[in-house]
Structures are given as structure tokens and as C-alpha cells.
Amino acid sequence: MHQSTTLTVPDPSRNNATYEKIAKVTAPILGIDMSATVTKNFGVKVKGKYIILAFHNQGSCSSIHFVSVSYYFCPELTIISDLMSLPRFTAPAINSETVEGSCVTNAVYYQGSLTVDCQSDGVWNISSVKGRCVCREDMENRGGECIVCPEGKYNDQNGFNCTVIPSGPQNIQAIFVNRSALALQWQPPTVTGDQTQVIYDLDCHRPCEGESDNKCVYKACGNNVIFTPRKDSLNITHVTIENLFPFINYTIKIYARNRVSDLAKRKYGIEANLTEITVRTNRSVPGKPEVFVEQPETVVFVSWTLTEKNGIIEEYFVTYVREDDLSETQTIATRKMEAHFELMAGKTYELQVFAINDFGRGPAGVKTFTLREEPNVTMYLKIIYGLVVLLALCILSFACYITYNRWNRRRNANRGNIPKTTKFSVMVYENVSMSSVAERKKVDEFRLDRDQITTVKVLGSGNFGQVSKAVYKPLKAEVAVKSLKDNAKKKDLQDMLTELDLMKTMRPHPHVVKLIGCCIEKDPPLIVLEYLPYGDLLGYLRKSRGIEDTYNTGEKRPSSTLTEKDLLSFAWMIADGMSYLSTMKIVHRDLAARNVLVGDNKVCKISDLGLARGLQGDIYTRKSQARLPAKWMPPESLLYGKSTTMSDIWSYGILMWEVFTIGESPYPGVKSREIAGLLQTGYRMPKPPHISQELYSIMTNCWEEQPKSRPTFPWLCSAIERLLNDFKLEIGSVAQLQAGTMGKPGLLGLWIPEDLEQASTSFAEESAKATLQKMSTRTRFEKEVKGNLERGYSSANDCDDDHDDDNDDDDDDDEDDDDDDDDVITEKSVQRLLKIGVGSEKVIPLLLKR
After folding, report:
1. What are the start-end ranges of the E strands in 782-831?
2. Which of 14, 38, 592, 717 is most buried per CB count within 10 Å?
3. pTM, full prediction
4. How far apart are CA 772 and CA 327, in angstroms?
5. For the segment 660-692, what is each residue's pLDDT rounded down to a tens digit?
6. Transmembrane residues, as ranges (predicted)?
């Protein structure tokens, strides 16, 4: 055999060395027709373009009539069961050769190796297959092709056929009930689905008896209720429920799920089928009443509450006994929840109240109290004389006040200083529905002389408003002056005056910016506030770690040494200020780090009430298409325009995330108009790796989907105060950390991470991955929400790319920074996350990690 790149054939007799001997053909035994066929198999390693065969006769008494040359190959093949595609492959001369297969269209790799042996005879050795592919979600294998599931059927990515979700469980019954426990049993669904196991999830609810929320009908049974063996993913058809209250109607919902139920809910919003049963626990004796005593005069009024009736209450028995004379006692029976007694003044009594229902008598609630001494006649006379003198002083003061006002009006009239109402001032009040006499008087109480205000410098400026530093001469104090520009719209003026009206109703609070006064009698209207020299909290945090940007409006620079205790204090002060606003029935609607100002001694105060609204009921409904801070808003505000104090709780959780990531922007890389759809998937921002689980739990409590499940501001104050009280260690600089001098337990016994940059990097990667994963999953609500947001609900205050100055009027900004956002997390966004806690030559705060 000779291989060559050309068709030139060398003479074998002359160039024998150019040929390679590959086989020897011996003389065959001839048949009757004097002919025979000889077959030789040999492998050829191709080196050239042409292969030339030469035959050398060495005295054989035979001749060659024809030569046939052929080879074997393994054909193109699809392995139907494994959804593997094998290419055409030239068979080896001997033994076999391994060939790599691939998944067919719409199939994905599942497990094992996708290699198959091609044998020398051109046959695939299918038995050598170790791996397999499976169809994508909602597709199934039909003859080696992945076909979309029929309507009403679903498929997970596990290699099975499409199937339906199961129907609800059958024949649920209570097989055991007592006053504190019950046992349920049921039968499997009639429809279970193909090639799947049915599992069960349980949900327990009870009536909202005695709840303060009048809209509450049913509530969850609570974490104290015990399910045996468990509540979720049951593979058996019976369960025991314990720690229940007596004589309560409990509703138990049992959901049936199979392997495609989660996919049907995630992709199409189709809930699992369920069957429910309502079971009343048995009666028990009543609980212990809580007793209250009042003594307005000589008669003692007694009332009580009973939360655990445990049956139908028949009567209450009330008994009192005098401590120093046991013979003075009385017992009465009543069906009311109050009673009254005439007792002896100055004596100590013990009061007992117990209830009786159709099951029996409950324990007694006990109250011990001492009655006041009766005042004598002399004391009554002194009180009467004092009231007479006080009344006389009041009359005299009022007469002096009237006389002074008359004299003052005559003096002003003589000087020609009678003020006139300008056309502009009338237009201001009429345009914003503030023309009532009462409201004008209210303005007068806070009106300042514009000439007594000297502007020093502009602190921050937006599209329609600005905040300036000024000096108010009568107080000889620095103040912040909020004003509108000439191009401000009617809506901006209305928001400014609404903010002014709200602030006038509030008494001074240490953690809410104080109103000094206003000048709205002529253009431009001014609101004068107390001045806080460190500017907004967002810029304060970012500057503390060396990031110089335009967020901060303060003149003074923040300390580069912030501690964990500082950050916890910030969170507590903000919660305290919001707790006050909630008691005033004011919903802020724009609570964020940019709207919190920092004063001396690191005191935080809530500011910028331009979006705030007073609650006439419990809910404020947005009626305008104002642009709102989407990334700080809860789902009910984004979707339905409903705002309550619970909406501010959600925003407070986002603010906490800002504080404890030292000024990072929430939901990095996500557009504002996509926030509502993302929240509908159940997504919440992941825990930054450098904070404790307890601290993160406070944030997630604020992000509960149901507003009534979120905590209150007083609860948040208590929770953060507890963390402050448990505080053990102040954290120093990164240099100390890297030097190994900070490796001691910190808050609540947690430990400081050894590498802050590594922790920040892992957090950025985790956040990016989680966000990308959630953004790839769309819900059926997203189109509705996206339409709403594009009509104007998205945030002008979104801090992804454009943070406004926080003494500024943030909602005046018409710049839509969302248009510049990418659909995915950009490298810029990730780099911003990597900056958490990292600052060159700066001492920065560090939180703790378990």
C-alpha cells in the first residue's frame, strides 16, 4: 500500500521502499467454477489524500479478476429512551472506539456520561450508555422528540411524562378531639397524576375573636401549635395537632401536591387543590379573668376581661374581702363584666373574680387595692378658694389681652401699616383649597418676617425646589429654608403646603425635624426648619467610608469611625421618630435614608414630609399619578395605591438595609418598574453576610407580604433597644481587623468576619445570582404592574443612578433614571456592591457575622 497527495503511481519493482506490506494473500482452494473470493481486513491510518494498492505475485498459480475495497461505519442514531443523538462515525479496524453523544433538541443533560462505543463492525454498543438527557419543563419524550405538554398538564425536568396536578384529599374526618388537641385522617385524591407520589401540606386557621383589627375574620393558629409528625410535605394521610385552645372552631386546610404542583404554581399561578374541615375543640373551664379597679369617688367600680371563655359563660362571681376584717365580705353573681361596691375609705381589700361555663368553674383573677382617704371639709374649702383665685387671674389676663390688642390696632392704623391681602396670596390659598379662615389663622401662628431671614448658601437643589442654609435673626440661629423655584407646578406647591400643615399639627419630637415657621404670604413660599449640619443619612454613611458623591448636603464631615452601636442607634432613633408619627396617624410614604437628617452627636431626625399624608381612617388611597419611590414601597402601595403605617414599616426595613450596608442602593441592578413583579415572586433581598441573623430577621419581619403580619414601630424600638443593651464591643478600623486585633466576639456572641472584602464580594455574588434568578421568573401580575409603573408610579427618588440631595424636595425630580438601568445586574452594580465596607485609608463600620 502507498499513500500520496497526488495520483502519481510509483513503480513497485523500482521503488519497492515506497510501498508498505499490509497483507498476504495465499492461493485459495478453487471451487467447481475454478474461482474463489479472499477477504482481508486491516486498519489503515490515513496519511495522504490517495491510497494506492499494489499486488505482488510471487509464483502463485492464480490470477486476480477484480478487487473490491470497503469500510464500516456506525450510522447516525437517536437513542429514544435517553434522548441522545449519535453522529455518523467511521468504525475502527479492530475492537471499538468511544464516541461522545449529545442531547436532542429541547432536551437537557440529566446525569451520567453521554459516550457510546462504536464497534469495528459498524454497530453501536448501546449497552455501554451510562448517561441520559431529559426534556425541558412542560415538555415530554415522544418517540425521541421533546413535545410540549397538552393543555392542563405539566412536567418537571426529571424525565417523566406530562401529568396533571392532584385533586383534593377525600373524606377528611376528625378521629379524635379533646380540649387542646385533635387528630385528622383522610384518603388520597381520586386524581393523583402519572408516575408521581402525592404529598400533603396543612394550613391551620382560627376566628379572630377579640382582635383589635375589625377586618380580621380568620388568623393563623400560631407558631405554638404542634403538628405531628409535621405540617408540610406529609407522605401519610393522618396528622395530630396539639396546643390548641378549648371551644374554638379550627379550620384545617389540606393541600395535595405532586411533582408538578410547584411548577404549576411558580409558572402559572395555579394553586394546589385542597379540602378543608372545621373542627371545634372540646369545652374546658374558663380562663383567669384580668381585673381592673377604679375609684372615682366613694364607690369602687370593678371590671374584667376574659380571653379564654372555653365554652358558653353562664355567670361571673365577684367576691371582696377586707384584709383587716375578714367578716366584711360580699359575693355577687352577674352576667355582665362589671360591678360596683361601696367600700370603706382608707382600707385594703382583696377582690376575686371567676367565671363559670357549662363545663365548670375557672380560676379566679385576684386584685388587691387600697381605697383613698376621704378628703375633709378644710381640704374642700382650700380647693374652692384656689379655683376662685385662678378664675379671677384668668379674667384679668383676658381683659389685659383685649386692651393691648385694641391699643395695638389703633397704633398700626395711625402709622398706616394695615396689611393688605395681595392677589397672589389669595391665589395660593384658593388653588390648594386652603382659603378657610381657620386655616389662615393657623398660618399666622407660624408666620415669620421674611426680612429677618438671611440666606447664607444653597445646600441642595432639585428641578422645582431647593434647600438653603440661612440665619434667622430673632433667634440668632442657623436654620434650613425650603423653597420652590419659579418653574414649580401647582402640585409642588400643594405638596409643600401639605407638608407644612402636617408639621404644624406636631409637637416637637427629638427624632423628627422641627418646624421653626413659614413665610407663604408672597412668592416664593418658604418653610423654615431646624438646621442639621451633617446632612442626609445616606450621604453621611457613604462619606464615612470615603465615597465622595452628591448625596450629602451637610457642611460638616461625618466621623470616619462608625461603630455597630452607632448604626443600631441610627435604626432606633428612626423607629422612635416613626413611632411618634404613627401615633399622630401620619403615614410618611417616602421613608428612606435620604430623607433622614443627621445632627450633632449623631442624632437622626426624620424629614421631608412632602409625600406624607394624614390618615382620616386607617388607610390612605393615592388618587393622583404622582411619581413615588418604588424600591422603598410595599406591594399594596405599588399595586393598589394603598398606604398605611404598615406601608412605612416595609420602607423602614429597606432603610435598615441601607444603614447596615453602609449606604448601598437596594435591589441592585433592578429597574424600578420591575420591582412589583419581582416582589410578587416572593423575592426579598438576601442577608448581607456581615450582619447577624437576628438583625436580618427584623428586616424580613418588615417585609411580610400581608401588612397585618408586619411589626409595629414600638415593637421595632424594643427589638433594636434590646440589641443595643446586649452590645458588648465597638468595632474599629479595617486596618485593625486585617492586623488580627479584632478577632473577638461582638454583638450577642457573634464573630467578626476575618476578611471584609471577601464577605462583601460573596454578598454581591449572592445578591446578583438571586436577583437574576428571580428576574427570569415572571408572574401573571407583571404586565398589570408594569403598565401602572410606566404611567408614572416609578420612582423619581430611585437611588440606583441618581440620588437627590435629601434636604431637597425629592419628589420634584422628573429625571427617570430607570431608563438607563440594564435588565440584568451590570458590572457597575456588582462593583458598587463590592465597595460595602471597603474604603482606602478610611476607618469604616463593620457589622457582625455568626
Report:
1. none
2. 592
3. 0.42
4. 78
5. 999 999 998 888 888 988 998 899 999 988 888
6. 383-404
